[in-house]
Every structure is written in structure tokens, then in C-alpha cells.
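Work Package 3 (structural annotation) set out to generate three-dimensional models for the target panel prioritized at the project kickoff. During this period the team completed the workflow that converts sequence records into C-alpha cells, so that structures can be stored uniformly alongside our sequence database. As a representative example, we reproduce one entry of 290 residues exactly as it appears in the project archive.
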Amino acid sequence: MKAKGIVPRRGYLLHLSHYSPAWYLRKRRERPIHLGLALEIIDEIAKAGFNLLIIDCEDGLIYKSHPELRRRYSIPRAALAKILSHARKRKLELVPKLNFSKSPYHRHKHWFRPYSSLADNDQYWGAAFEVIDELIEIFRPRRFFHIGMDEDDARTREEYINAICALGKGLKKRDLRPIIWNDSAQGKSGLWHAGKSLAAEKAIPRDVVQTVWDYNDVKPAILRRLAKQGFEVWVAPGQDPMQVLEWKKAVLKYNCRGLVMTTWMPCRQSNRGRLLNLIETVGPIYGARL
């Protein structure tokens, strides 16, 4: 039963690695995740009232199933196991994340090279689910697996819908539900992506968790629309405290289920102050009762 005035799922997104235009420019300087800081972040989000940890794995992990995905910043499974064990001790639900969006500009798929250049064929999905299965083995997730799917430029709308359905079908066989980013809150620069999200809403299964992201504005009507369609709805509200609070009010008003704190910066010592300050100043809003 949901406690009145409290958002049930309060998540934090931690990166082993990531791909975006800005992050890609720093790839040559990327180093492995700082294990000590990751453990410190887990302690702080638990204190702030978070109850769910999403870990963006990408090519930041050395996979047994696909060692060719290894980069110089990839960490061994034993290091990830320490992070997961620490999170479990803090009673955080664990959610693995990969991104299967395709875009030559946003590069979200680039972690999956050499398979990222393939069409959505049997070879592509075969390799994808081998990586997914390895993460499931490591994480032992209870309910969810985040599959990204934001800012997809390369697929047609039909191909985009088919990709979500293929991933969802495979995860359902594994007793897990997919989480996707919903782009429908994006403005002029993101209208192509917003249109794909709107088209997908009409066609994909209702067990797909829709995470609306908007870091510049609050758009409650989107939550109302998605909730009416029968989706479980989460929001990634950005880092501004007032915006987080207003999104949280909308989440509670429309009986949505989650809030996710995103930072989009590497977990390294040079970012320690910024990462911990955000948790200290904005994090408590996520867990507070309204």
C-alpha cells in the first residue's frame, strides 16, 4: 500500500559509464568508476530516503559473455559485486540499465560496438540478450530492467516500437519489466523523439514503465495522459529543487509511482563535491512526505 504523500519508488541513477555527445568528447580521458565514491554515494542516497538504485552499465563492465566490449575503463565483475552488495545492505532495490536507442548523433548505442552497427536482426538481439542475461545473473533484479530508448534518431517509428516490444517480450520471459525514457516532454529540438514516444504509447504493452524526463519545465498533462493509458509512470525531474518539488506534486496528484534523480556525470573524485552536494540539497525532496 502506498503511503499518503510519499512517492513509492525513489531512484538514483549511477553510471559505470555512459554515452552522449558531451560524454563522448571525454571518452579518451575516461577512467573506471571510483569504487569508494560509489559506495559513499550509496550511503548518502539511503540516508536521503531513496529506495532504488539504477546502475548504467554500458561498456563500463568486463562481460564474460562478450569480452570484446571491454574498454580501458571497464571494471571487473568483482568490483561491481561490491557495489551491489553495499546497496543491498542499504535496502536499495537494484535495477540494471543498458541503452538500445540508435542515433548517430546521441551515440547511446555506441557502447555496444561492434554489434551497434547491425540492424535489429537475430544476431543483434542474440548478443543483446546475452549481455542482458549476464547483468540479470549479477544484479538479481526483483522487478525491472532499464533499456533506455531515448533520443532514437535512426529507427523509423515502426522500428522503434518493434525494438521496445522485442526487448519487452524477452524481459517478460525473464519475469522482469522494461523501463524506458519517455521523450514526449521534449520541445522543438526534440520533436522527432517526442513523436516516437507518442506513437509508441499507442502500441507497446502497458507493463513498460514510462519515465518522463524534462529538466527545464514541469508538464503535468503528460503524466495524466500516460496514467490514463494504464502505464506505470516515473519522472526524471532534473536537479533544480523547485522543479523537483513541482514534478513530485504532479507525480502524487496523478498516482504515478516513481522519481529518478539523474546527474549525467562520471562517478570520479573530481566530481565528488558536485555529486554529494546534489544528494544533500536535492535528495531529501525525493523521500519527504508532502
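The longest helix spans residues 122-139.
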